Amino acid sequence: MNARRRTTMACCSALTLALAATACGGDPVSAGGGGKELSGQTLNVAGVWSGAEQKNFQKVLDAFTEKTGAQTRFTSTGDNVSTVVGSKIEGGNAPDVVMVPQVGVLQQFAEKGWLKPLSDKTAGAVDTNYAPVWKEYGSVDGKLYGLYFKAAHKSTVWYSPDAFEQAGVKPPKTYEEMLKSGQAVSDSGLSAFAVAGEDGWTLTDWFENIYLSQAGPEKYDQLAQHQISWTDPSVVKALTTLGTLFSDKKLIAGGQKGALGTDFPGSVEKVFGPEPEAAMVYEGDFVAGIAKDQFGKKIGQDATFFPFPAVTGGKAPVVSGGDAAVVLKDGKNQKAATAFMEYLATPEAAAVWAGAGGFLSPNKKLDLASYGDDTLRETAKSLIDAGDSVRFDMSDQAPASFGGTKGVGEWKLLQDFLRDPSNPAGTAAALEAAAAKAYKG
C-alpha cells in the first residue's frame, strides 16, 4: 500500500509538483560532491518516490554528500520497483541502495540473493534506535537486510472540527462510539465518512485496523503469513464489524455506489474540499499532506485526527507501512552504500526530512521537535510509543497477486464486499481461495 499511496499523493498537488519539477520524471537527480572521505565516489539510489517525496529525499542525499563528499544519484523506479531493479541487475547497472516499499518485496529480493546484510555498525544502531519489531520486518532468515527509514502511521481517522462541532460530538474512544458519532453527524446534514472504495488498498487498511484491534497481534501475524485461513472465525468477525459500517448508507458519502466511485484523493476532498460531503476520512498520516497542499487546510485546526479507536474491547491498533533501505550485492560502490546505511540509521538523517514535512521516522532517538507542527509530532509520538505493538500493513506482507494488485485478490474482493456486505462468511471464503492460490504460487 505504501507505494500505491505514494502514487496518489504525487498526483494530488499541482503546486507541489510544480515546485518539484526538476526532481520528477525519469531523469535521475544528482547532488554535487565535497572533499571528504568518500570524495570521488557516486552512490546510486533507486526507489519509488517521485514529486515532493523525491524532492525531500534529495535533501537527505544532499546532507550525506555534505557529510562524506560522496556524490549521489537518485532514480525513480515507479511503483514496480521489483521489475525495474531486476532489469538493472541483469543489465549490469545495479543501484547501490534501493528504498523498498513493502516487506514482501524485501523478502523477495533476499530470496533471490540480491541483498547484502547490513554492517555491524548499522545493525547496532538499529538495535539502539528502533523498537525490535522494525528489525524483525527488515530481516530474512535471521539476517538484517533492511533499514526502515520512512514510516507511515495508518491508524489515524481525519476529521473536520467544524463538522464535529456542528453535530455536537467529540473524537470517539471506541469503534462503537465512532459509529454512534457518525449517526449524529449524519443527522446534522453531512455523511459521516468518505470512503475511497475505488482504490482497493484503502479497504484493506480498514480491515487491518479492525482485525488487529479485535483479533489481537498474534492472530494478525498468523493471518499475515497465511498460517491461519481467511475462513478463520476471527476474519468473519472482523468482516462483520466492517460490514456494519459499509451497509449503512447514512454513514457513507454517496452510499456504496458513491464510495466505489471515489478514489483516495477524492475521499479527502469530500471532507476538506470546498464543498464538504462528509465529516471524516480514514487513512494514514499522509491525509494531512493533501488537506494542506491541495485544499489549504491548517493542520491541527481545520483538519486534525483521532487514533483509530479500539474495537469491541480490544486495544487501539497501530498499523504502519514503511520504506526500507537495502544494499544490493551487485552495486559498484559498496563503501559508499555502507556509509549511507550507517547515516540513515542516525536521528541526524531522519531530522532532515522531518523538518521538510510529509515524513515519519520509526527512529525513537529522533527529537520530536524536528517535526514541523504539533500534529506531526503527535502522530510520530503515537508511532514510537506503540513500540513492538506496531504491525506492518498486512497486504504489503502478502504476495502482490493477493494483496497488491488492482482488480484482483484482496483489493477486488473487499470492493465486492463494500458493494454487498451481506455475506461476510462468503467473502472470507473467496479471500481464502485467492490467498491460497497466491501463496502457493
Describe this structure in words.
This protein is α/β, with parallel strands linked by helices and 441 residues long. The protein has helices spanning 2-10, 14-19, 51-68, 81-90, 103-111, 120-129, 132-137, 161-167, 175-188, 200-215, 217-224, 233-246, 255-260, 264-272, 287-293, 334-344, 347-356, 374-385, 394-397, 400-403, 409-419, 424-440; strands spanning 29-31, 42-47, 71-76, 97-100, 115-116, 139-140, 143-144, 147-153, 156-159, 191-193, 278-282, 304-307, 319-328, 391-392. The strands form three sheets. Strands 1, 2, 3, 4, 5, 8, 13 and 14 form an eight-stranded mixed β-sheet that branches. A four-stranded mixed β-sheet has the order 10-11-9-12. It has a two-stranded antiparallel ribbon with strand order 6-7. A hairpin with a 2-residue loop joins strand 6 (139-140) and strand 7 (143-144). Helix 8 packs across helix 9 (175-188), helix 10 crosses helix 12 (233-246) and helix 12 (233-246) crosses helix 22 (424-440).
